[in-house]
Amino acid sequence: MKQLIARHHHSIGEFVKFMLVGLLNTGIDVAVFFLLTWLGIVYVAAQVVSYSCGAANSYLLNKVWTFRSCGLSYAEMVRFVVVNLISLGISVACLALLHDVTGLTLAVAKGGATACALAANFLGNKLWVFR
C-alpha cells in the first residue's frame, strides 16, 4: 500500500512539473505563433513552427527535470518525436475546427487546440517516451 501511495505521489509531482514546463512551452508556442501570423504566415504553418519550438524546449526540460531520464537515447528521441507529431496533429485539427468551422477567434481557437493536445502529450511522454 505504501508503494502505491508513494507512486501516486510521484506521479502527481511529475504532472505538476509537466504542467509548469508546459506553461513555458505554451508561452514559447504562443509567442512564436502570433509573431509568425503577425508577419503574414498562414496560421497552419505558424502552428507547425511554433509548436515545434515549444516541443524542443519540452524535450530538454521534461527529460532532465520532470521525468529525470538519464543519458542520450536515439529511441527516446524517436518516441518523443512520434508523441509530439500526434499531439501536433491533434492541435492543428482542433485549431482548424475551432477557427474555421465554429468561427472562434484565432486566439480562442489556439487556446482550445493547446488544451486538446495536453492529455495525449502527457500520457505519451509519461508512459512511452521517458518511462
Number of helices: 4
Assign the structural class, choosing from mainly alpha, mainly beta, alpha/beta, alpha+beta, or little secondary structure.
Answer: mainly alpha
Percentage beta strand: under 5%
Chain-averaged pLDDT: 89
End-to-end CA span? 22 Å
Radius of gyration: 16 Å
3D shape = elongated
Secondary structure: number of strands:
0
Order of helices and strands: HHHH
* Uncertain regions spanning at least 5 consecutive residues: none
The profile of the biggest β sheet is: none
The helix fraction, in percent, is over 70%
Number of domains: 1
Short description:
This protein is mostly helical and 131 residues long. The protein is built from four helices and no strands. The model has no long low-confidence stretch (mean pLDDT 89).
Can you give a write-up of this model?
The protein is mainly alpha-helical and 131 residues long. The chain has one domain (2-129). The chain is built from four helices and no strands. The chain has helices at 2-38, 43-66, 74-101, 106-129. α1 (2-38) runs antiparallel to α2, α1 (2-38) packs antiparallel against α4 (106-129) and α3 (74-101) runs antiparallel to α4 (106-129).
